[in-house]
Amino acid sequence: MKGLVLLFPGIRYTVDMPLLYYPGWYYRQQGYEVVPVSYGSQFDQVEFHNQDITAEIEAAKQYCFPQLQSVDYASYETVIFVSKSLGTVVAGWAQQALHIACQQIYLTPIHQTLPYLDRGCMVIAGNEDKVLDPAILRAYCQAHAIEYHGFPGGHRIEVKQDISTNLKTIDAIIALLKK
């Protein structure tokens, strides 16, 4: 097996939504095993409007920890974590907690993700994100020599009523994965 990709969803942003679905599809085509991480059905009804989600982050970590522990990461040549929003915190924490050598691709990280961002990761965010101010994120990435890519749109990196721009954004994100 060439490699493993774990997909870490966000709150109300499943692995079937564009920012996780298309990277998963791309990596499957490259021969990677792609595994969605689950936080349980309790996340199906959670809302996220910039409120404190510390409890949700902890619940997600506890729920998925046995899943993450059961993987034999050493049996793969390459391990990649692709995460979205709340999932960026869980992915960063998992890498540290389990001492996993992996590439991190953080899609629209939230404030609690910042301590996990390091030089080897890639950050992709919306230029109008209301969850984590893009100026703060860009400055943090620049100060820590982290690869940063900003795209039109908010926290979902989508521009409402503009399918053409959204498709171009997905295409550009997939191109970044090919590097």
Question: What does this entry look like structurally?
Answer:
The protein has 179 residues and is α/β, with parallel strands linked by helices. The protein has a single domain, classed as 3-Layer(aba) Sandwich (Rossmann fold). It has helices at 18-29, 54-69, 86-98, 134-143, 163-177; strands spanning 3-8, 33-36, 78-84, 103-107, 122-126, 147-151. It has a 6-stranded parallel β-sheet, with helices on both faces. α1 crosses α5 (163-177) and α2 packs across α3 (86-98). The longest helix is centred in the middle third of the chain and has 16 residues, at 54-69. It starts with a strand and ends with a helix.
Fill in the keyword field for this structure.
5 helices; six-stranded parallel sheet; alpha/beta; Rossmann fold; 179 residues; AB_hydrolase_fold; Alpha/beta hydrolase
Q: How does the SSE layout of this entry go?
A:
Elements: E1 3-8, H1 18-29, E2 33-36, H2 54-69, E3 78-84, H3 86-98, E4 103-107, E5 122-126, H4 134-143, E6 147-151, H5 163-177
Parallel strand pairs: 1-2, 1-3, 3-4, 4-5, 5-6
Helices, by number, come to 5
Q: What percent of residues are in strands? A: 15-25%
Q: What's the overall average pLDDT, rounded?
A: 93
At CATH level 2, the architecture is 3-Layer(aba) Sandwich
Give a short account of the largest sheet: 6 strands, parallel
The portion of residues assigned to helices is: 25-40%
Overall domain count: 1
Distance between the termini: 20 Å
CATH superfamily: Alpha/Beta hydrolase fold, catalytic domain
Strand order of the largest sheet: 2-1-3-4-5-6
CATH third-level topology: Rossmann fold
Low-confidence stretches: none
The shape, in one word, is: globular
Provide the gyration radius in Å.
15 Å
Work out the oligomeric state of the chains in this entry. Answer: single chain
Label the structural class: alpha/beta
N to C succession of SSEs: EHEHEHEEHEH
What is the CATH domain class? Alpha Beta
InterPro entries: AB_hydrolase_fold (IPR029058)
Organism: Absicoccus intestinalis
Protein name: Alpha/beta hydrolase
